[in-house]
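# step 3/5: fold
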Amino acid sequence: MSFEPGLYHILFVSTALFFIGVLGFFTRRNLITMLMSLELILNSVNLNFIAFNKYVWPGQLDGLFFTLFIIAIAAAEAAVAIAIIINLYRNSQSIDVNNAEELKY
């Protein structure tokens, strides 16, 4: 006897991931942890797309294509963000958000 999670189980996990990501994004001041929190939010959205694709529209692949698109965008976003973080660290020897004020000018 195997247990297959239903739509509500997956949506519960996705909601938990989303709120953990939002909480981490708003409470942390370290740019790396903020980037990881943003990735958690994007992964919760991917989980929603896959769950709805499987349970609501099982014959279509729209959710999978959206998920692949979000993964590609997240990879590009992470590469650019890490480059900015490395540049900020080289200039100010810190990756604290409060020290990122110098990037404005």
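# step 4/5: annotate
The chain has a mean pLDDT of 87.
# step 5/5: archive (pending)
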